[in-house]
Amino acid sequence: MSKARVPWKAVLGGSVGNLVEWYDWFVYSSFAVYFAASFFPEGNDTAKLLNTAAIFAVGFFMRPLGGWLLGRYADRKGRKAALTLTVTLMSASALLIAIAPTYEAVGYFGVLVLVVARLLQGLSVGGEYAASATYLTEATPRGRRGFASSFQYVSMTAGQLVGLGLQIVLQNTMTQEALNSYGWRIPFVVGAAAAAVVFYLRRSLLETEAYDEEEREVKQADRGTIAQLLTHKREALLVIALTMGGTVAYYTYTTYLTKYLSNTAGLPKETATLVSFCALFVFMCLQPAAGALSDRIGRRPLLITFGIGSMVGTVPLMTALGGVGGFGGALVLSLAGLLIVTGYTSINAVVKAELFPTNVRALGVALPYAIANALFGGTAEYVALWFKDNGIESGFFWYVSGLAAVSLVVYLTMRETRDAALSRAEQATEASLPSRV
């Protein structure tokens, strides 16, 4: 089993869309400081940033809708079709932002273009996760699924690193005036072009065997419906519960970390950014190793390790990070947090896909995950800043620990999914093997 070949073309095609998705997600928030003034009238700069942040938040609200619509589409039309559609939406959203007219040219029409782009981006993110997770899991033989599906977070993290790297390059090669005028459009042009390349790659992918079987034997009306999902209510609730602790911990040690190191620890922004870049790079490299480990020892041991580590370690780690004095200490502590989070991120996609039957697998992964991510991951930074604003910043650390404790209970009581048969062919092979005593 462990010697099964990894279908690298499927892994590349299934995961690389996440790179573009998270690149787009990152560059919108990081370049907002440059383009905010282009879409609103002269006035309070903070108000302009708040307006662009509100438009950014629209994407999070759209993710559950995208999970439902595109998860249903993936179960009815195929994993390949869904992957192709999500990357088309990605390219369209990035291109819209790149060409959006300014307030000076057309008034608030430019804001409308931004909102439409974020709606498309939210739909795309909501569907991309499930389509990618389902495709990577179904296209890979048992014994290598954990390893292959871990590339989902490799590509997601790579997207953030590429966006951060491009930001550093542009900041060091363009003047502030140029960035404010037209330079901020460059990363969105790059995002649209990258999505077009991914579209080309995905057109040549093969459909998974599990879906082909289902398409031949189960009528479309019985695939990807809410009614079918409700017959697996326990698994759907399981996805929400096992996600809540992982997603809030992930956002804490990734997107929120730079702000925390700058605002609370008092590190220079350049140092905080460098810490995040280096920590994320190491984190990205850890994912395949942890995924491969889960193929050997099972998914639950890694999830349980994450649950215990996050529940017990978040408060002391974040407290120590708040008082860190330089690059070295901040990097070591950040890596400790991300090492704990790896127990969740490296395998969360494959675990969810292994819980559901083929006819509702994409929807079963998409909708509960999107709900949990919108409620807990998308709000993590807001909750953290709320605690800080009220003078009880440590309350956020306990909040993260509490959610991890809830997820830990789920990890301890859920079934092991590593050996799940995802297709009829796998079930037949399993039935033909001698019974284990």
UniProtKB/TrEMBL annotation:
InterPro entries from the UniProt entry: H+-coupled_symporters (IPR051084), MFS (IPR011701), MFS_dom (IPR020846), MFS_trans_sf (IPR036259), Sugar_transporter_CS (IPR005829)
Residues of the Major facilitator superfamily (MFS) profile domain: 10-419
Transmembrane helix among keywords: yes
Subcellular localization: Cell membrane
Record's bilayer topology term: Multi-pass membrane protein
Keyword Lyase: no
Transmembrane segments: 21-40, 52-70, 82-100, 106-130, 151-170, 182-201, 236-253, 273-290, 302-321, 327-351, 363-384, 396-414
Major localization listed first in the record, in broad terms: membrane
Highest taxon in the source lineage: Bacteria
UniProtKB keywords: Cell membrane, Membrane, Symport, Transmembrane, Transmembrane helix, Transport
Family, per entry: Belongs to the major facilitator superfamily. Metabolite:H+ Symporter (MHS) family (TC 2.A.1.6) family.
PANTHER family on file: ALPHA-KETOGLUTARATE PERMEASE, PROLINE_BETAINE TRANSPORTER
Protein name: MFS transporter
